[in-house]
Every structure is written in C-alpha cells, then in structure tokens.
Specification:
The protein is an alpha/beta fold. The protein has helices at about 25-35, 55-70, 85-95, 110-115, 125-130, 135-140, 155-160, 170-185, 195, 200-205, 215-230, 250-260; strands at about 15-20, 40-45, 75-80, 100-105, 120-125, 145-150, 190, 210-215, 240-245, 270. A 6-stranded parallel sheet has the order 4-3-1-2-9-10, sandwiched between helices. The longest helix has 16 residues, at about 55-70.
Length: about 280
C-alpha cells in the first residue's frame, strides 16, 4: 500500500523509524504490534552503514539531515532506532528541532540493574555507543549499585545486516563477545544495539539459562505511544500501513528485511541525495 504522506490532520502524520540499516526493524515490529492504526515509515541509512566505527560528529551530521527530511514529510514523531545515532545526536536533534518529538535509544541498564542478582550487568554495543555521553549518563543515573561491564562488538552489526540469522558463523561471533561477560559473572545482558535484537534468540542460547537478555524494543514502543498520547497525536482509526525506505541499495536490503519481519518487504529508494 502506498503511503500518502501529506495530510491535513496532525495525527495522520507518520511515525518515522530511523536506523543505519536493518536493526531498527526490531523497533518497527513492536510499533506495529502496539500501534496497529498508525502509519509507519522506516528509513534505513544503509548507504552509510555501519555507523558504529564512524566518528560521532559524522553520525550526528547524518542524523540531522535525515531528521530534517523526515520532519518535513511530515513525521509527527521520529524514533531514532539506533543506539549509535542516539548517542551521537539525540541531544542535538532536540536542540535543532525543539518542536519535534524524538524518541531515542539508551541501553536498558536501569531495568537490568534493578533485576540483577549478581550485581554485574553486561552491555553489548558498538564502540561509538560506549563513547557517547548518553551511555555514561545512563550508568551514572541507574547503575550506582551494580558493576556495568561494557563489551564492544566490532563487526557484529555489519554481519547481522548482511547475513541471515541462521548463518553458521553467527554463533562463533556471538560467543566471542558473550563468553567473556559470562566468565565475568554477569547475570543480565543488555542489548545496546538494535541489530543485536534481531538475533536475540541466538544470544540467549549462547548466554545460557542463568543469564537474562534485555531487549529494549518493547519499552521503546511503549515510550513512543506515551509521547504521542501526551501530545494528543495518537491515530484512533486505521488502516495502519508501513513503508520501508533505504538510502542505499534496496534489493538485498528488502530480502533481508523480509526475513526479519516474516513477510515480503520491498524497500523504496529514500529521496536523500548525499554521500560522504
């Protein structure tokens, strides 16, 4: 179904979900479930994927340009469904667009710290996420009584982006990052990258039954609903619809997105014309 963006009613604007690639589909799935009457637009900036190894200033520049494009659709809310982009740009986005509604990602350290029995919480994320002020702030606010063990996962998001979830190499990659945390005694494992939520079952299996894997996707969807409800922008009648767009190639992206969403997806070329 084609998404007619222009609308006279503010509540009929789209909820835009933005990520560097496939990872934000974990958020999109939850939004579809929780808000079936809404019009959802997914924007994958896969021409610049991966974000993780990039300087934060560069990621911030991408996010500001993309947000400007999305808000002029118009999008009534923008979900920055990327931990790296949230760490790099969420504060700047809210400053640049004070009237915009932005929902970002932060590692789910708060619930993990509250539920930990061992007092040790592991976090899987990109190096850029750990370097951002957002992560440091979350740890300072919510993890005073536990030890937070950061585990950068170089290459994992890119692997998930470009391979099916049953790829035989995935187990070895996940084990390389998870086993040091298990040896360190963590009993809560926070997924600090939306790509990792797409392979949560694999991570849980390798972590074992004594470790709880924390996926923030449902909480982000609930937060999005709450923000829209507070602004009186919830759409009360459907039909809901979803359009997927990508700034880079769309064919392989569509194939991989179809696997993760469990239905046929045909991504459209995003009308954004910049390349670093």
């Amino acid at each position: 179904m084609a998404l007619e963006i222009l609308t006279e009613k503010p509540e009929d604007g789209v909820i835009a979900v933005y990520d560097s690639g496939l990872g934000g589909l974990s958020i999109l799935r939850e939004l579809e479930r929780l808000l079936p009457d809404e019009r959802l637009l997914y924007f994958a900036d896969n021409i610049h994927m991966p974000y993780g190894p990039r300087p934060l200033d560069e990621v911030r520049g991408f996010a500001l340009l993309i947000a400007d494009h999305l808000l002029h659709l118009p999008a009534k809310a923008v979900v920055v469904a990327c931990n790296t982009a949230s760490a790099a740009a969420l504060h700047a986005l809210r400053e640049a667009y004070p009237n915009g509604l932005f929902v970002g990602m932060e590692p789910a350290v708060k619930p993990a710290a509250a539920e930990s029995r061992s007092g040790r919480v592991g976090v899987l994320a990109t190096q850029a996420t750990f370097q951002g002020e957002l992560f440091e702030s979350v740890v300072e606010r919510f993890a005073q009584d536990v030890v937070v063990v950061p585990q950068p996962c170089p290459g994992l998001a890119e692997f998930i982006e470009n391979h099916p979830p049953d790829h035989p190499v995935l187990d070895a990659m996940v084990e390389k990052f998870v086993q040091p945390l298990i040896r360190d005694g963590v009993d809560m494992l926070v997924l600090g990258c939306t790509h990792y939520a797409l392979v949560k079952e694999t991570i849980q299996r390798i972590a074992g039954p004594d470790v709880t894997v924390v996926d923030p996707s449902p909480a982000v969807a609930r937060r999005t609903r709450a923000v829209l409800e507070e602004a009186k922008l919830l759409r009360e009648r459907g039909p809901g619809e979803v359009v997927v767009t990508a700034s880079g190639e769309t064919e392989r992206f569509s194939e991989n997105a179809s696997v993760h969403l469990g239905r046929a997806v045909k991504a459209k070329a995003a009308p954004v014309l910049w390349i670093t």
